[in-house]
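Retro notes (design track)

What went well: tokenization of the new backbones is finally stable.
What didn't: we kept losing track of which sequence belonged to which structure.
Fix going forward: every design gets posted as structure first, then sequence, in one message. First example under the new rule, 219 residues:
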């Protein structure tokens, strides 16, 4: 749901910025690469130190590149398979960096193996959720389902609550650090449900295709 409405809103907002980059001679692929590097730096430098507020600020500044590069490609009228592949691949890298940085915090000074495990589950399940759709489509199925917690929801929930939890260490706001564990449990549960939704959908669609093919052979 967030993918549908938030993406449309921010696309309109960021269109002038995308046009400015094009006039400056910047390519969409460069924006994709710079955005991913920025997200990785924010997540893997700040998060393992427990600096969740500043880490989230840095990540947020770069995460919008995912919208800017596509906007630039559309303005150029040359969306390509390579661009789509690069964008999708680097999205997975950025997601892994976000949850990897949080996992490093809990494995170290955060001192919680349970939350480290939950974070790793968030990382892995998010990657598998994306894989199920890509794999289903690669074998000719539409995978026509809107999951409960897709990539946009995972990032918004995690980044917003991580940033707010950082108010405890950065600004001394008491007890607010509990928001990050809440975010991780919510994302973990939501990702598990979404994975189940996609597996069930692929199974149903595959059965429908097999039935249609069988009927075609016997007709």
């Amino acid at each position: 749901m967030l993918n549908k409405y938030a993406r449309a809103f921010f696309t309109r907002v960021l269109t002038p910025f995308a046009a400015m980059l094009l006039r400056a001679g910047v390519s969409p692929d460069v924006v994709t690469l710079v955005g991913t590097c920025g997200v990785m730096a924010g997540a893997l430098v700040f998060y393992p130190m427990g600096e969740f507020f500043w880490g989230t600020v840095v990540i947020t500044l770069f995460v919008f590149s995912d919208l800017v590069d596509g906007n630039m490609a559309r303005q150029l009228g040359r969306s390509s398979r390579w661009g789509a592949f690069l964008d999708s691949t680097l999205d997975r890298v950025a997601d892994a960096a976000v949850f990897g940085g949080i996992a490093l915090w809990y494995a170290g000074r955060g001192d919680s193996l349970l939350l480290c495990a939950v974070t790793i589950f968030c990382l892995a399940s998010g990657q598998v959720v994306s894989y199920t759709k890509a794999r289903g489509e690669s074998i000719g199925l539409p995978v026509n389902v809107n999951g409960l917690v897709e990539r946009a929801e995972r990032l918004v929930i995690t980044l917003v609550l991580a940033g707010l939890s950082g108010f405890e260490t950065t600004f001394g706001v008491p007890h607010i650090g509990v928001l990050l564990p809440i975010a991780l449990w919510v994302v973990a549960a939501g990702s598990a449900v979404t994975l189940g939704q996609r597996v069930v959908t692929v199974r149903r669609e595959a059965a429908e295709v097999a039935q249609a093919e069988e009927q075609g052979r016997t007709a």
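Added context from the reviewer: The first helix runs from residue 2 to 23.
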